[in-house]
């Protein structure tokens, strides 16, 4: 019985160690400065439009590709949470989003080059801030071009 328990535990720890091969590696934005072809992955077409608008406004020389196979790196945007609240006049909401930029290295491992979260608060249809997808794209391009320093 003791040998059987040892074998089971060894297999469990071995499987756990092998299962970590698909976890992303943390990289730096400098690693993608020469990359030009990007694939954009969003949850909504509206967020995609805002990202494309921000890239155009920042005069980014990135080429957005329609097929992930053609991309040198990937930009993903997703809404992490949204809380709506009815108030006396109108409504308000808080939205938290995340943008992650990554590529695959020569070992086919995912390398996260840049990632950032942002919270947007909007009340009664009035907002001082741009949509999260737009703002985070501007921050990414600034970081990529070194204009965030």
Task: Kindly describe this structure.
It is flat, with a radius of gyration of 20 Å. The model has no long low-confidence stretch (mean pLDDT 83). The longest helix is centred in the N-terminal third of the chain and has 18 residues, at 2-19. It has a six-stranded mixed sheet with strand order 1-6-5-4-2-3, covered by helices on one side. It contains three helices and six strands, in the order H-E-E-H-E-E-E-E-H. The protein is an alpha/beta fold. The protein has one domain (24-145): 3-Layer(aba) Sandwich (Rossmann fold), CATH 3.40.50. Helix 2 (45-57) packs parallel to helix 3 (132-145).
Characterize this entry briefly:
The protein has helices at residues 2-19, 45-57, 132-145; strands at 25-26, 37-42, 63-64, 73-86, 91-104, 110-123. The protein is flat. A six-stranded mixed β-sheet has the order 1-6-5-4-2-3, covered by helices on one side.
- The tally of strands reads 6
> How confident is the prediction overall: mean pLDDT?
83
Beta-strand residue percentage: 25-35%
Evaluate the radius of gyration. 20 Å
Q: Give the SSE string.
A: HEEHEEEEH
Whole-Å distance between the termini?
62 Å
Shape: flat
> How many H/I helices?
3
Helix content: 25-40%
Strand order of the largest sheet: 1-6-5-4-2-3
What is the CATH top level name? Answer: Alpha Beta
What's the CATH architecture name? 3-Layer(aba) Sandwich
Could you name the ranges where pLDDT drops below 50 across 5 or more consecutive residues?
A: none
| Overall SS class | alpha/beta
């Amino acid at each position: 019985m003791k040998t059987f328990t040892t074998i089971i535990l060894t297999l469990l720890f071995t499987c756990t160690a092998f299962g970590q091969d698909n976890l992303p590696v943390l990289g730096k934005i400098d690693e993608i400065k020469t990359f030009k072809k990007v694939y954009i992955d969003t949850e909504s077409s509206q967020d995609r439009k805002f990202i494309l608008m921000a890239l155009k406004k920042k005069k980014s020389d990135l080429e957005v590709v329609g097929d992930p196979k053609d991309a040198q790196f990937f930009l993903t945007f997703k809404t992490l949470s949204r809380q709506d609240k009815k108030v006396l006049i109108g409504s308000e909401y808080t939205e938290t989003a995340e943008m992650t930029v990554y590529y695959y290295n020569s070992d086919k491992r995912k390398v996260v080059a840049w990632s950032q979260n942002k919270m947007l608060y909007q009340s009664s249809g009035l907002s001082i801030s741009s949509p999260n997808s737009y703002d985070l794209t501007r921050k990414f391009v600034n970081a990529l071009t070194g204009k965030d320093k």
